[in-house]
Amino acid sequence: MIISASRRTDIPALYPEWFINRIKAGFLLTANPLNKTQVSKINLSPETVECIVFWSKNPGPIIQHLDLLNRYNYYFQFTLTPYDSSIEMNLPDKSELIETFKRLSDIIGPERVIWRYDPVFYTGKYDFSYHIKSFENLSKSLSGYTERCMYSFLTVYKKCERNMKAVTFSRPDMNDILKLSEAFAQISISKGIKLQTCAENFDLTDFGITRGKCIDDDLISKITGKQIIIPEDRNQRESCLCASSVDIGAYNTCTHRCIYCYANFNHDLAIRKFNNHNSSSEIITGDLSGNEIIRERHDSSSDSLQPKLF
């Protein structure tokens, strides 16, 4: 079983104690986002969990607990962008996050810390030239601390349109996508970083850019030392190449307040859920009411509890 922790919220930054408590307990519960009474019990034993994929914009809070994960295989998708607090409101300063990135890489190795430059979009401040300069500066800072960068261009879904009304933004057109990608490729090659797109369906192989997968069975096979063959996740976007996984997070529970976030479309609700969070609970948000139907999950090959997001 592959555990995704999590596309829906930032567990390493905001819920590390809960996650570690569940590791100690050996299981957790996760609810169907479309039907809270349908709950899965996830076995977290090292024998069952082949790999944990962490998604975070600030994994600093979980670093102190990594020694408790020695029996597990895992890696991080670490999002580090050039945006300031008008876009990503509740994150530490980027210089601090760069140091966190380096510290994490020093502990677990650059192969297991994937840099995400995601999503790419324009505003009056963040234009073509700004992205080129920022990508170069971040690449220089992270060179030697990561082997791969994944990037994608903004897609605005209805759930996050309201949050993005605070800024005037646009997605780069195809001409700029090609120019940015070519420039990014030249920079990343010079810094020893492999560049891949995330859930994009255009061909950039002329620039040496391949289509990547965040839940990466090839990387998991390399980390675990055994061949892992997992079908693609049918619950993600059509252009997504990720292997199937079990996501253990919950929507509207992240307090970072990134205006482009598709998983967090009600910030007030997220704050309430975070404030009511119980790190001793079996489930990440709230407590069980008693009328749930709980079933055990044994693999991640067919995650019927994950609705399509897009």
How does this structure look, described?
This protein is of the alpha/beta class. It contains 9 helices and 11 strands. β6 (about 115-120), α5 and β7 form a beta-alpha-beta unit. The longest helix is centred in the middle third of the chain and has 17 residues, at about 175-190. The radius of gyration is 19 Å and the shape is globular. The two termini are about 25 Å apart. About 40% of the residues are buried.
What's a quick, concise take on this entry?
By secondary structure, this protein is an alpha/beta fold. The protein has a single domain, classed as Transcription Regulator spoIIAA (2-Layer Sandwich).
Query: Could you describe the largest sheet, including whether it forms a barrel?
Result: 8 strands, parallel
Q: What name does CATH use for the topology?
A: Transcription Regulator spoIIAA
Query: In one word, what is the shape?
Result: globular
Strand-residue proportion: 15-25%
Radius of gyration: 19 Å
The helicity comes to 25-40%
So what's the oligomer here?
Answer: single chain
Poorly predicted runs are 302-310
How many domains? The number is 1
Mean pLDDT: 93
| Overall CATH architecture | 2-Layer Sandwich
Strand arrangement in the largest pleated sheet: 9-8-7-6-5-4-1-10
